[in-house]
Structure prediction request, 211 residues.
Amino acid sequence: MKPTFLITAGPTREYLDPVRFFSNPSSGKMGYALASAARDAGASVILVSGPVALRPPKGARLIRVESAQEMYREVTRCYRDADIVIMAAAVADYRPEKCLSKKMKKGRSALSLRMVRTPDILASLGEKKRKRLLVGFAAETGSLVREARRKMGEKNLDMIVANDVSRRDTGFGSDYNRALIIDKKGTVTRLPRMSKDRLAGIIVRQCLRNF
Ligand code: C5P
Prediction:
């Protein structure tokens, strides 16, 4: 039987008031490409997506969310149906402690905000993994392999895809990515710059081989 993929994509938005939020430049292209590649491989796909300007991949079950907390709730709810989980979303690590119910007025002085941690979705999935295959992404601006290995251990992952987001020609927002994949045995596969569609195909095939 073909496995069910649970894939996350895009940024999250952490609201400060009804019209302002903290976010990041993730376009969702990598996650959507993964959802399409998994569907093309004949698998069932659940795609939990932050706000993006992309057309939903046909045949995937799309669940839209905004905040990290919402993503946590939906991913946790869908987890029991999932065999392979790929967390490609750029989840915010912090959110404003309070979200005001009315638009904040500007004052004359500087503004200090207290930010609190959001749930680490992937780490919580790693704690109750059982037979599932868990794949994370690591967007780094240095020490790619070391950071990726650390995250893999901390979050109990089977595979991690790491890319250097300080490069302009790949990563956030781009149609291209230059990534390396580290598998459970610690083997590092360095891939050349390629389209996110092609990279998605490689990741999905590797997941299916290891499942
Ligand atoms: O720790 P870092 O954010 O770099 O880890 C990256 C991986 O963890 C990604 O796969 C991302 O989707 C996931 N993540 C998560 N929940 C968070 C932060 C990151 O699931 N709060």
